[in-house]
Design goal:
The complex is a heterodimer of chains A (about 450) and B (about 170).
Chain A lengths: L5 E8 L3 E8 L2 E8 L4 E3 L8 H12 L2 E3 L47 E5 L11 E7 L2 E8 L7 H5 L4 H8 L7 H16 L5 H29 L3 H22 L17 H22 L3 H7 L7 H7 L3 H6 L10 H5 L12 H22 L15 E8 L4 E9 L2 E8 L1 H8 L12 H8 L4 H4 L1
Parallel strand pairs in A: 4-5
Antiparallel strand pairs in A: 1-2, 2-3, 6-7, 7-8, 9-10, 10-11
Helix pairs in contact in A: 3-4, 4-5, 5-6, 5-12, 5-14, 6-7, 7-12, 12-14
Chain B lengths: L1 H10 L6 H21 L4 E7 L5 H8 L12 E3 L8 E5 L7 H10 L5 E5 L27 E3 L6 H14 L2
Parallel strand pairs in B: 1-2, 1-3, 3-4, 4-5
Helix pairs in contact in B: 2-5
The chains are: A alpha+beta (about 450), B alpha/beta (about 170).
The complex binds iron/sulfur cluster (SF4).
Iron/sulfur cluster (SF4) binds next to helix 3 of chain B.
Chain lengths: ~450, ~170
């Protein structure tokens, strides 16, 4: 039986109860819990990725989870005191560290089996996170991904702010997906102000989003071969990424697009965009032509880090990782985007090579979409008031589907929740390690290129 | 590989536009000579990200692309704090990173310099001190130099590193 895809599961606090919202693709379940003794029945035996959601609900709201196979804390690390930060009654601006409580990692036991701990601070220039391997010699027996080192408590901090005040922080949830988060925010702003989304403005926003995707994919098509020991690809692709970033700054004023999504379109030179895209297109084609011819590289990329379509579906993975395994989901897959040239790209095998090839295909598609998004400038009025209520939005970032939920009460944010695509995909990462050796880990991890900051919030 | 060398010959050295390159060249020259004098030609940096949005890290990665090519000047991002002369600290210093930063710092050979990167660590930008955000000052470690920006662009980071070197005793 095909299982519904779990998108998110999170808690809301009311004055007399808690409410758990569980969102599946196409249906929502809401469940009220007693405030004095909140107990939630786990769904993790059926939906594996519910595990992190439920562990987070427990840490954030002190809601007891029953029937779960994993009862360890998620956000509450070794020295994090047992306080439910997200409860309304918790209003301190500071927490005191508590005594060190060891965390019990998942591990495989047996003769000659040993563990390798990596992180939270990594060897390269990357965000913090922890990977715990159980090894039989070179072979990976099991990997546990442990995150939330970059936890900033954004959900809590945004409470009590207005939608407009929240913008700056929302655009800094995940630097690589800033424009995507801004689009989700903007969509909610449009819903709450009951203004229509001007088509010209939407085209501009979507153009920025495709630029963000281009930069992310271009960076990755350099870093993936680099992790297989082919540094020349990184040198070439990082130039393409840098050129695109410089161009994005010319277009919107910031290299990462911070502040770019607003109520007007800055005037830009249309011919320059076309010229830039033509040049980029030809250079990517050259890159592709060059790199397909390097057999020793494909020897590393092919059959490494496989995620089968069946498992991808079972775990409900999203974005690049899903499409590389043949699961054809993309939030852009609708009339609006199709009108401007969107074609859903996918691969079949789900290995590192598939994820690499998919990125190249998506680069071409983004380039043609940007061409179609070019239009004249426009300006819409800033909304004057927002209607209270619950709003949701979905945006396909360069990693995958972002889900955002905002509840407004008396004009202020009562609850903010965002689920980064990485939050789901991280939980499926260990599946890709089953047939591989530890030296392949950086390569496999890079091929998914997930966000730590977005997932940790 | 023949394709590559042909392309290489066509492209020669990566340049953006002349003014930018000229400025950058000047800074790089000075930087290289300072590193030569103060660190015997090799400055080892340990990057520690402590609750950033990842844009600051992305800009540090950009420093290694052919336009900026920082390694050529003798600046290396090293894999262990034990090899590092300086720690480049980005992010807000969140509750779950606090003790790990201290651990990393205490592994560094003295003199160890802390350079804060971006508006986050000193809480000068969007993020303020809040329940899960401690800020770099709370670490009670000597912060030697600060590079502002959200994120500071690669050129600003290079300039920042140069000022850092100038301020060294
Ligand atoms: S300073 Fe700005 S760019 Fe850097 S990590 Fe903080 S929010 Fe991101």
């Amino acid at each position: 039986m095909k299982q519904d895809r779990l998108i998110a599961r999170f808690a809301l606090e009311h004055s007399n109860s808690f409410e758990i919202i569980t969102l599946f693709d196409g249906k929502v379940q809401r469940e009220k819990l007693d405030k004095d003794n909140p107990v939630l029945k786990s769904i993790s035996s059926r939906y594996t990725t519910a595990t992190w959601f439920e562990r987070k609900i427990r840490d954030d709201f002190d809601i007891k989870i029953v029937n779960a196979y994993d009862n360890r804390p998620l956000i509450h690390h070794e020295r994090f005191p047992s306080v439910a930060l997200m409860k309304k009654e918790f209003m301190n601006n500071e927490i005191k560290f508590s005594e060190y409580k060891p965390y019990k990692y998942e591990s495989v036991k047996g003769d000659g089996v040993f563990e390798v701990a990596v992180g939270p601070i990594h060897a390269g220039i990357i965000e913090p996170g922890h990977f715990q391997f159980s090894q039989e010699g070179e072979r990976i027996l099991h990997l546990e991904v442990r995150h939330f080192y970059t936890y900033r408590g954004i959900e809590k901090v945004l409470e009590g702010k207005t939608l407009m005040e929240a913008k700056k922080m929302i655009e800094r949830i995940s630097g690589n997906e800033s424009i995507a988060y801004q689009l989700a925010w903007f969509d909610i702003v449009m819903q709450a102000s009951q203004n229509g989304y001007d088509e010209k403005l939407k085209k501009y926003h979507c153009m920025l989003l495709e630029f963000e995707r281009l930069i992310h994919h271009l960076t990755d098509i350099g870093f993936i071969p680099n992790d297989a020991g082919f540094g020349a690809a990184l040198s070439f692709a990082s130039m393409l990424a840098e050129d695109t970033r410089v161009f994005l700054k010319e277009l919107c004023g910031h290299r990462f697009g911070f502040g770019a999504v607003s109520f007007d379109v800055k005037d830009y030179d249309k011919d320059k965009i076309v010229e830039f895209l033509d040049d980029l297109d030809s250079r990517v084609r050259w890159f592709e032509d060059w790199i397909v011819d390097i057999p020793s590289l494909w020897d590393r990329l092919d059959t490494t880090g496989v995620l089968t379509a069946q498992k991808a579906q079972k775990y409900g993975v999203v974005g690049v990782v899903a499409r590389s395994s043949g699961v054809k989901i993309d939030r852009r897959d609708g009339d609006f985007y199709k009108k401007y040239g969107f074609v859903l790209q996918s691969e079949e095998i789900g290995d590192v090579a598939s994820r690499f090839k998919l990125r190249i295909k998506e680069i071409y598609n983004s380039i043609s979409m940007v061409r179609n998004f070019i239009d004249s400038t426009c300006r819409v009025d800033k909304p004057i008031g927002f209607k209270d209520g619950e709003y949701t939005s979905f945006v396909e970032s360069s990693i995958g589907e972002i889900f955002m939920f905002i509840k407004l009460k008396n004009g202020f944010i009562e609850r903010f929740y965002a689920r980064d695509p990485s939050f789901i995909n991280w939980q499926a990462l260990y599946l890709m390690m089953e047939k591989d050796i530890i030296a392949d880990f950086p390569l496999i991890n890079k091929s998914c290129d997930l966000s730590y900051a977005g997932s940790d919030l | 590989m023949i394709k590559f060398w042909k392309k290489r010959a066509e492209n020669s050295i990566a340049t953006r536009h002349l003014k930018f390159d000229k400025d950058l060249e000047e800074i790089k020259k000075e930087l290289k000579s300072k590193i030569g004098k103060k660190f015997a030609g090799s400055l080892a940096i340990r990057m520690v990200s402590s609750g950033s949005c990842n844009a600051c890290e992305a800009e540090c990665n950009a420093l290694l692309n052919p336009y900026y090519d920082l390694e050529r000047l003798g600046i290396h991002f090293v894999a262990s704090p034990r090899h590092a002369d300086a720690m480049l600290l980005s992010g807000v210093v969140g509750v779950n990173m606090y003790h790990h930063i201290l651990d990393a710092y205490h592994q560094m050979p003295q003199p160890a310099y802390i350079i804060t990167l971006g508006d986050c660590p000193l809480l000068e930008g969007t993020f303020e001190k809040s329940v899960a955000i401690k800020g770099a000052k709370s670490l009670d470690l000597p912060i030697f130099h600060h590079i502002a920006g959200c994120p500071p662009e690669p050129k600003e980071i290079i300039e920042g590193l140069l000022t850092f070197l100038k301020h060294l005793p």
